[in-house]
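Recall that a protein's primary structure is simply its ordered list of amino acids. Everything else, from secondary elements to tertiary packing, is in principle encoded there. The following example makes that idea concrete.
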Amino acid sequence: MERRGNRFVRYADDCVILFKSKRSAMRVKETVTRYLEEKLFVKVNQEKTKVAYITDIKFLGFGFYIEKSGNVRITVHKKSKEKMKKRIKEITKRNRPISSKELAKELKEYITGWVNYYRIANMSKHLREIDSWMRRRIRMIYWKRWKLVRTRYRNLQKLGINKSKAWEWANTRKSYWHIANSFILKRTLTNEVLKIYGFISALDYYNSINL
């Protein structure tokens, strides 16, 4: 393939070969399959071996997209993004018997590991959305843990809310998830405060390793 100028990438037994036309791809697929099975005695999984448009490919968790200029760029595949969100949701379950410090540590370990793996992908927009959603879940956890009215009242005051407003919100009957997106928690448990508490920003970390 190298002698013919075909572009390809391989990792273990996974391989992607790129072509300019579907016809060329179909022809080489048959040739490579025949060579692997008849010469090297390697069984080819026909279900996973297919010809597809580059934006439909998932390779090692990565995906691809085409810019308006026509250039192909690497991104994180949709399924990998969904898996990440599912894992963060598991870590940030509001009823987990875990301290805030342990929660921050667990999130940091998962996010840094995930971002390091996918660091070559363009994913700023995705991480910005994840940060916003994740912070809301963290605020929800804090609000639930401030379960008693007096605890909420006291903590809101500590974070700069005046007595009347703190008392009003401490007595709210709105859901945890609703309050987590309210101005009162965004004003008190700000992004900077959460950072002080040890909670990492996925986007900030991504930018720091891609300077």
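The chain has two domains: 7-76, 78-208. Residues 78-208 form one domain.
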